[in-house]
Specification:
Blueprint lengths: L10 H14 L13 E5 L11 H19 L3 E5 L1 E2 L3 H16 L3 H4 L1 H25 L10 E2 L3 H16 L3 E11 L4 E3 L4 E16 L7 E6 L10 E4 L13 E4 L4 E7 L12 E4 L5 H9 L27 H15 L2 E14 L6 E11 L11 H10 L4 E3 L3 H10 L4 E2 L1 E2 L9 E4 L3 H8 L5 E5 L5 E5 L15 E2 L3 E2 L1 H5 L2 H4 L8 H6 L4 E5 L3 H16 L6 E5 L2 E2 L16 H8 L1 H11 L6 E2 L3 E3 L6 E3 L7
Parallel strand pairs: 1-2, 3-4, 9-11, 15-24, 23-24, 25-26
Antiparallel strand pairs: 5-6, 5-14, 7-8, 7-13, 9-12, 10-11, 14-16, 17-22, 18-20, 18-21, 19-20, 27-28
Helix pairs in contact: 2-17, 3-5, 9-10, 9-15, 10-15, 16-17
Length: 618
């Protein structure tokens, strides 16, 4: 009998039929084959913070088009799928979840229990993410799915950290960092944003020591930081203050005396009073002034949670914002307050917790990016040369400038995070003498050590060390911090293929062919993958970088898991089918400008279509 055709095309039926057909026959799986030319793409691993949105649909559809095109041309194609642990973002989501349901902080819950719950979250959302990719029709090699915290990737992380530490590219130092007081961790410049915020601009005066009725006036947006002042600064050519340079003033709040210094890079005679307070431990410009005038010293007044520490004197224990009010009130009662202006201030916020960033002095781990003094090329310059020599090419070409401009600053990369979810920093501290360390570890590979300026040794190892490895008298204590998520993500093109082992997959598929990603992570991820590939392998990780346009919501905002305005591709597929959704994103990706994707719901009161507001989207 003839087959009766359906009266209307049913995309759901067709999708399930062909998804099952493709997977049962293993059409997307790839094995090394010397008789064929490889074509390799590694997926930008989605964060396990939540489900995918339409921005991911665009990015992954573009990758799928490239992979299927090359597969039809006879290439041996590998599209490597996987997910990213997204240290700070995922921990923040789970911490909020725990506090909302149980009113417990991570410290009350404990490290082991919190990490256990984050793994549960990861398993749930990884399954959802991979399911979304399958329903979109992505032809990934599902048998090779990787995760940035799995054993294969962890081995690559350990090996890279060890090599960089041994060769002096990784160091620990006391530096001023962006501090998220809510999450109590450092965050990168690229993980912050500026937002105009209503604030105050207070003016105060300090009395000059041994000069009755002589005061020096200054203004500040953060009065509480007066407790951490180590100097006041004027311009060396400002005639108003020439006679005061070298003298001292008293901070009325504490009675502490600090010097009046001259620094033409910090003070401007044309701005305000021409005098500025200097708080090196809590302001990046003031910290730079300290590096030019180290005699003024550093004084940290904050605890990690944003409360004032013992250096805050009578204000110790107060939250910094409460301390601000108390400090102003105290200065007013003492007669050293001169007024306040209401101003709009460009305030820096953490992209993860959405709370104001505090410049904070702390010991952190860094990767040296600048040129070296031993004749070796610096990491930043190495990655810049890869693009200027066209070993790595950007499409559209203009994004190469974004890449080069960021690397050109050659700023050291802060790679430590004060979190519990992530790759633990493989450093152990001990007060043991060098002779004992040498005797214990001399003939063992994967271990190196250095002495620090605090009278202890730092031991780096590719495998975990037992606490009693040097005997009970000299216990080993592992560094409590974890590595920045981008450190492990930087290794993604080669860690997923088995490096540092010289696997058949690594030898055949590396370097990869093309990277398809978003412009927002050119510095965070693309540049660092090039650095890691060149450092570990002396090869670029990919030859082409295609930067896609961005999918915006109906209000012109970038779709984001953090914002909660992401539209689930499966909702579109359920109504129109995967092919229609894929055609839509391919159509808008032909433009170089970002594209809005207005989404509407049926109003339950009038049955009319109304735009979805951000707060209504989960």
């Amino acid at each position: 009998m003839p087959t009766e055709l359906a009266k209307a095309y049913d995309p759901q039926e067709a999708q399930q039929k062909w998804l099952t057909y493709w997977e049962e026959r293993g059409y997307f799986h790839s094995e090394p084959d010397p008789t064929k030319k490889p074509f390799t793409i590694v997926i930008p691993p989605p964060n396990v913070t939540g489900a995918l949105h339409m921005g991911h649909a665009l990015n992954n559809t573009l990758q799928d088009v490239l992979v299927r095109w090359r597969r039809q041309q006879g290439y041996n194609t590998l599209w490597m799928p996987g997910t990213d642990h997204a240290g700070i973002a995922t921990q923040a989501v789970v911490e909020k979840d725990v506090y909302r349901e149980e009113k417990k902080t991570r410290h009350e819950l404990g490290r082991e229990e919190l990490v256990r719950r984050i793994w549960q979250w990861k398993d749930k959302y990884e399954a959802r993410i991979l399911g979304q990719l399958r329903q979109m029709g992505c032809s990934c090699d599902w048998q090779r799915t990787r995760f940035t915290l799995d054993p294969m990737c962890a081995k690559a992380v350990r090996e890279t950290f060890f090599r960089m530490f041994r060769e002096g590219y990784i160091y620990r130092g006391l530096r001023l960092v962006n501090w998220d007081a809510q999450l109590q961790t450092s965050v990168a410049d690229d993980e912050t944003y500026n937002e105009d915020t209503k604030g105050g601009f207070w003016t105060f005066k300090y009395p000059v020591v041994d000069s009755p009725d002589t005061f020096i006036r200054f203004s500040t947006t953060r009065p509480e930081t007066m407790l951490g002042d180590t100097a006041v600064c004027v311009h060396p050519n400002d005639a108003r203050y020439q006679a005061l340079i070298g003298k001292r003033v008293t901070i009325p709040l504490t009675g502490r005396e600090i010097p009046i210094i001259a620094d033409g890079q910090l003070a401007d005679p044309e701005l305000g009073t021409g005098c500025v307070k200097v708080t090196p431990a809590h302001d990046p410009n003031d910290y730079a002034c300290y590096t030019r005038n180290p005699q003024i010293g550093l004084l940290n007044i904050l605890n990690p949670d944003g409360t004032l520490n013992a250096n805050g004197g009578k204000f110790a224990g107060l939250d910094r914002l409460k301390a601000r009010e108390a400090v102003v009130k105290e200065m007013e009662s003492l007669g050293f307050y001169e007024g306040k202006e209401e101003r709009v201030i460009p305030l820096k916020y953490s992209d993860r917790s959405k709370t104001p960033i505090e410049p904070y002095l702390s010991d952190q781990w860094f990767v040296k990016m600048a040129d070296r003094t031993d004749g070796k090329i610096g990491l930043a310059q190495m990655a810049m040369d890869a693009v200027t020599s066209e070993r790595v090419k950007f499409f559209p070409e203009r994004y190469g400038k974004t890449y080069l401009d960021w690397l050109g600053e050659k700023r050291d990369w802060c790679v430590s995070r004060q979190l519990w979810w992530g790759h633990r920093i493989p450093i152990w501290y001990t007060s043991a003498p060098a002779a004992l360390i040498e005797k214990t570890f001399a003939n063992k590979s994967g271990i190196c050590w250095v002495a620090d300026d605090k009278g202890q040794h730092l031991i780096c190892a590719t495998e975990d060390l037992a606490a009693d490895a040097l005997g009970a008298e000299y216990p080993l204590t592992q560094d409590p911090d974890v590595l920045d998520t981008w450190f492990s993500s930087a290794l993604w093109p080669h860690s997923t293929l088995g490096w540092p082992e010289k696997t058949e997959e690594f030898k055949y598929y590396y370097p990869t062919s093309v990277l398809v990603t978003n412009r927002d992570i050119i510095s965070l991820w693309v540049a660092r993958m090039v650095i890691a590939g060149l450092y570990n392998l002396d090869q670029v990780p990919f030859h082409h970088v295609y930067i896609t346009c961005k999918v915006l919501d109906g209000f012109g905002d970038t779709m984001s898991k953090n914002k909660g305005n992401g539209v689930d591709p499966l909702d579109i597929i359920a109504r129109y089918g995967a092919d229609a959704m894929r055609f839509l994103v391919m159509q808008i990706s032909t433009e170089t400008q970002d594209a809005r994707l207005p989404v509407a719901n049926v109003c339950p009161h009038c049955d009319e279509l109304v735009p979805v507001k951000q707060e209504h989207i989960y």
